[in-house]
Design brief:
The structure holds 2 protein chains of 2 kinds.
Chain A lengths: L1 E6 L2 E6 L6 H8 L18 E4 L2 E4 L12 E3 L1 H4 L6 H8 L9 H14 L5 H7 L11 H18 L1
Parallel strand pairs in A: 1-5
Antiparallel strand pairs in A: 1-2, 3-4, 3-5
Helix pairs in contact in A: 3-6
Chain B lengths: L2 H6 L5 H5 L15 E7 L5 E7 L1 H4 L4 E5 L1 H6 L31 E2 L5 E7 L2 H8 L3 E6 L6 H4 L15 E8 L1 H9 L3 E9 L2 E2 L7 E7 L4 E5 L5 H12 L6 E4 L15 H13 L3 E4 L2 H5 L4 E2 L2 E9 L5 E11 L8 H10 L10 E9 L14 H18 L4 H8 L8 E2 L5 E2 L4 H11 L5 H10 L2 E11 L10 E7 L5 E4 L9 H13 L6 E4 L17 H28 L6 E4 L2 E4 L6 E3 H8 L7 E6 L7 E11 L5 E11 L6 H20 L33 E4 L17 H19 L12 H10 L5
Parallel strand pairs in B: 1-13, 11-12, 16-17, 22-23, 29-30
Antiparallel strand pairs in B: 1-5, 2-4, 2-6, 3-5, 7-17, 8-15, 9-14, 10-11, 10-13, 15-16, 18-19, 20-28, 21-22, 21-27, 24-25, 25-26, 28-29
Helix pairs in contact in B: 12-20, 16-17, 19-20
Classes of the chains: A alpha+beta, B alpha+beta.
Chain lengths: 156, 771
Amino acid sequence: MKLNLTLNGTARSADVPERTLLADLLRDTFGMTGTHVGCDTSQCGCCTVHVDGMAVKSCTMLAVQADGCSVTTIEGLGADGLHPVQVAFSQCHGLQCGFCTPGMVMASVDLLRRNPQPTPAEIAEGLAGNLCRCTGYVNIIRAVQQASEILQKEAS
Amino acid sequence: MNAPTAQVLLRKEDQRLITGTGQFSADAQAAGMCHGHVIRSPHAHARITHLDVSAVRAAPGVRQVLTAQDVQAAGFADLPNAVQVKNAQGQAQVVCAMPVLAHDRVLFVGQPLVWVVADTALQAQDAAELADIGYETLDVVVTFADATAPGAVQLHPQAPGNTSVKFEAGDRAAVDAAFAKAHFVSDIAVESQRLVGAPMEPRAVWAWHDEAQGLTHVHTPSQGVGGMAAYLTHITRWDAASIEVHTQDVGGSFGLRSSAYSEHALVMLSARWLKRPVRWVGSRSELFVSDWHGRALRLHGHIALDKDGRILAMRFENQVDAGAYNVYFSTHIGARNLSITMGGAYQVPALHMSSHIFFTNTVPVSAYRGAGRPDIAYVIDRLIDHAAHQHGLDGLALRRKNFIPPQAFPYTTANQTVYDSGHFEAVMDHALRISDAPGFAQRRAEALQRGCLLGRGLAYYLEASGPGGAAKDQVRANFDAHGVLSLHALTGASGQGHETSFAQIVENEIGLPASAVRYFAGEPEQDLVGNSTGGSRTLYGMGSAIKNLCQQLMHQAKPAIAKLWGCAETDIGHVGGEFQEQSGNQRRLRYADWIASLGDLAAQVHAVGEASSGATFPNGCHIAEVEIQCATGVAAVAHYWAVDDVGQVISPAQVLGQVQGGVVQGLGQAFGEHAIYDRETGQLLTGSYMDYPMPRAGGWLRHFHHETHAVPTSLNLLGAKGVGESGCSGSLPALANAVTDALRQVDAPPMDMPFTPARLWAALQAAPQKP
């Protein structure tokens, strides 16, 4: 089945089997391997991308459902340098192996879009759909707090 | 990477990982790549009555279908078992190795049976559904009691009673004598339940065969390419020189990446036979039933005390579930790792342990973060806590009285382990000081007002870090024409940030900026010797080799500096990466400046550093306050304080990260994680992230505070002790002691992990008192 979408700002098209998941389209057809697949029950959140600006686990969507949409992956997030969320994850040591990180970052960016000044509890709730096995989450929550402060400063 | 960006990032690894440009094994694509799929047993125990894969072979896109016969024809061996021990009578352990593909019987749900390779992954999966396989199901055993009961179904004809070995360590007679004269005795049986390791990156492997060179390249996550290559050589029986393992980014290990699985060997075989690149990527559902499981231990600890509260002896009787086969490290866990520090941080004159290693119809067990060390630490400090409570002794005083004092080092334990250093009482006092012990009563009263029971638990753990299998660790170094130093070695990272901390060591030693140092570990280095990453030993193992390398580089340069300065070599000393003329002009020259001055000639500077670094003894005191909501049984860690002696610290931020991650993995085991098998069918009931409760953000942990209390070791060049697994070793007993303390307020019966809401609620309902 044919589909057209905007991927990281560029118009792209593909012809894939109907059952193809968006995550597989991004990885296998378009080579956006920063979108990771960590489970098969939509629990881990490693595959989180933005579809029309909203965070979506790309394993929960068929590729054809993204027809006509604008999709942003981790590769397209910091088009003109690193996004403050990416920098904060590094500076706060919010990643170790880095496999969950693209999904964590994409989910965090959307969380801060919806709630620019979240409390730690709100961050935890907002990221409950993203699993990390390395960090224990303590520094991930700190990273999102730091990114929130930087984004607030940039906005003011 | 441009320099300004790199400087704002904490680690050298981060640039690629935060931008999605890391290279994990499932990311590769190659022209003509085929995809493998494994048909697994849906039964826990069955005879294969017939196996017809003709329809699979005829399906669209299918290029190859392999069964056990094909693997046998290829001459492949079974999967390795790393350690074999003897029983107390000197008889060798019965080792039942796992075949790459099951022959006539399957022994656990998920066991690989048929291998299908097709042009696409979907074609391979579709074709697999056409297999016609007949099973005659057999009785199933998934518990110790069932496996060892008279008349139980036998999994392996060569292992009567489903027993691999009854291993013993220590002095049984001395312990019996001590118990006979003891004033107080106590015992407690605890379970360290079966877990799923679940690193976030699913297991993956792809391989291609270079016909011209006769070389099969294998790309897979590992904990070191050398160890992985050795296991693959064992299984394939191919010439070691015909296999090269490559590892780039690794999405978490926790012990699970230390071994080669059936899929590695099958991908390699297909790549050679099909003359195409072949890839396999596990789905999370199949990894739950095929990645080796962890823990699966039951430990019964006994303690004997004299009338003054001095420990006379400890004894442990362990049940060690190997799963369906002996793979890799289950024996190492049950024999070595449980026994080597079985006296913990305490002076124990007599020690004895027995480990009954047995088989069940479950996924085989191997190393998972700590691999037996957290488990023995868990039972030791639950036993101390239990004995103190049972006999009305003060738990802190009991520990103080029995700690090995600083002046006793080097200290040889009753089972001949030599600890080199430690200030256990000072570390415990440090933890007590920062954890507001006096305020606990107030916090407990406040919690009760909110309908919660607050318990406080303390644990002192001591563990032995990995000695390493190779005699030494080597690192090869060379400069390029721009003065950038490249380090090549075998031991690989999976989140530990080696690229950053090893560069930091170089900066500390010779003043070369960390930004000018690169560490490469994922490529085959046939001429180097070294260990894999495991047992928390890499920072000090490889780090010591790098320190030795730096010393060599400084010495190597002295003739050139002497020529430059026109002085004798013996007149040149060096401190902190700076050459210093000892007399005459007292000139100074930084190593980094000297290298820069060489220009293109820097490329001629090279050296191999090496060091032999054995086990060290990380230890620490963890204190937890756990709050249990009476109405729901939901538990949360209101406060957590950890003070760890991990020796010399190289990278404080990364040490903290390791402790946080380890403690939260301990929280996962304490409050939720449990691989549960159905007793009748042997089906795994917790087979996905939907029913296996992984720790989540926020979750159980409200407050966390960590400090280090360094007592450097002289056992390696860096003075570091290892930190990767200590978070698990400290947290399990601290959390369990806190829960136990909370439950004691209502005289609820003692409980085992995991302390899930349902189990806690049931315990509170059964309690004779109401809060």
